[in-house]
């Protein structure tokens, strides 16, 4: 028992002692580096660490305590493990627990610690090192080949063009590193094709392709990554070649016909712009109507200058310095004229012609306000040193060479000179006003108006205001008794030379040169005087949209449009129209020019659009036929001629205008040449001329009360040769005035007849009426008696109707008076009247049968017949023909007329009868009498007076 107790005590002492000794042996912790950098190649397990994995312990060489037993890794799902290769040296190894994939994760970071073996074999009381950071980078392996993003590529290119890039192909690589994931090169596999590809995959053609030679190319393309690994599969690139696309306007016609009177006509209703798929950012197009070859630059009204001024409301009192040559306006007779078109009176000056304005015509009272206006066409002056070219000049007639006022061109500058006389103030005053304008020398017609409100002078060119760019001052002119000479086309140099002569000649064309003293014209009137009647138009401005900007020039001959949307531009151009508001426009060609500029993104111009040259063909208008109808032969007693009121010459005059319409109504026969239709338009003058000897002012005259012109746009001039009524006004107003023209003769003793001729005009003589001749007989009788024929029809105004064909206007009537005579004369008169009635009834019967046979093809118009005082004066000393012989003569004449009627059965006019059956016998007799009135001439040789 005692021995057992002693053994237990020994064991316990021994164990306590060992414990104390062990604590003293493992005194230090293992030591490792603070951080490690490692590299592992994907799909391997070995990690190369820098520095190597080594753990040290200061307890070495003590067994267990100085040895390393483990490395532990702390991190979430770190696919690595560390193993101890040598416990004594502390070397370790870091390796992957499974293959590493770079495409999944390129880098890893985690914590590692080293553990020693403790104090003994059991590993008790082991110690661990501090924590070290490990950063592992995964090296890539070029395991993936490039692949293209699209299974096939398509492109279209136009023949005949070299492209920088037709299209771009693109490949990708799934490797994780830049070296193996980037595509470093592309290659065309297909041999012998005119294409090349660059490193970025852009395919271009190396030569111009032809659609006729090859319409499609199939190209195989491969790609290489930077590790020179090629794509597993090449990609197909299909390139189509299309015919060359020509940028420009499409869907337009070169010729556009315009029918007068149809208003606005669209020029390009189906037009569109082809840009060949260009990257268009904006389009600007200009439409220009070129009408310089027409009259004074476009279709304007061609009435006389005075008529136009009245139409536009211009102030009265203007003086026309370049009127048409005539008896009272002979100073323009020596000038060269070019009638131009539409009766525009144009004077051409070639540097040798000029005209002196007679003193009686020279405008007086040029005060501080006056207006000078003219049409001018002028080009650059010939020669190196251009001389002054004078349009208008007022200079001293003799002795001196002072210019009082003048209008001239010098070096393509328009200069107006105005030298005022001395007054109470002796100071410098504005004397020369200069304008520098392109219009002065562009060889085109322009309308110039100079308004003078001294000292302010304003120039209007085509209705646009221009201020002078230079005004020079000068001393006033000393007053003198020297007469002045006004000239056109040059300046008169009457003094300071051996022989007076013209100088500073004008080279160009002038028309409508006028001076209006005392007043200036308003801009409204000026615009009216030069306004074009034709131009460009847009049907609907509202439908253009906000994206379209447009601008018209003042004459509306140029239209500019701009927009950033191609379709809006197309729609806007389709709305452009041509319009001509003249009732009878000048026929012919109006040229059209369309120019277009296309701007692309980031470039000034990228597409060239060819200009368009087209033309509007203005068709010949239906020319009006102006017809004057009325009584053309009558006799009146001398007392009416000698009365203070005189004799009304045209009491029932009627002026109508008709045109032929080509449209053939279905109900009318097809053999007619057209349909007559009455139209309404203005006249600009009517002349009543005396046929034969001119009027003798001592005993006869024509009279027209000035009150008849009030409220109308009409004026009148009266002379021994006749009366001229002029001004643009309606035909009805002309009728009213002409019906008031009277003829008076206060010495009719030796007067038996007077003849007059009436003609009317529209558009300054472009359309003229028939010559209506009137014969007036004077009845001399001591016992005058008015005989009333109750069978006569009162004259009525003609009503215009539609006719199948054109014809002659037949409208006459006779009236006279019966002087007192013997009973036998009355019997003879009654017998003659009965004969006329019988013949008339027969003629009506024949005409009625012919009309029935033709199916009432022609309507008869009303014919004036005034026989309210029908008188046949017979010489009782003559032998009369037997009634039977007269009847036979009448029958023969009727047969001849019947043959003529068969040839002219369609020749019916608006002057034929529409009277009732009761009136037909008398009117038929009158028609027969008209056609042979040369047999009814009055025999006044045996009248008893």
TrEMBL record:
Residues 876-945 are annotated as: Disordered. Residues 32-148, 149-249 form the Cadherin domain. GO terms for cellular component: cell surface; dendrite; endoplasmic reticulum membrane; Golgi membrane; postsynaptic membrane. One of its GO terms (biological process) is positive regulation of synapse assembly. Residues 879-920 have a biased composition (Acidic residues). It comes from the Eukaryota. InterPro entries: Cadherin-like_dom, Cadherin-like_sf, CLSTN_C, ConA-like_dom_sf. Pfam families: Cadherin, CLSTN_C. This is Calsyntenin-2. The chain crosses the membrane at residues 821-842. Residues 929-938 have a biased composition (Basic and acidic residues). It comes from Lepisosteus oculatus. Belongs to the calsyntenin family. GO terms for molecular function: calcium ion binding. Keywords: Calcium, Cell adhesion, Cell membrane, Cell projection, Endoplasmic reticulum, Glycoprotein, Golgi apparatus, Membrane, Postsynaptic cell membrane, Repeat, Signal, Synapse, Transmembrane, Transmembrane helix. It is a single-pass type I membrane protein. It is found in: Cell projection, Dendrite; Endoplasmic reticulum membrane; Golgi apparatus membrane; Postsynaptic cell membrane. Residues 1-22 form the signal peptide.
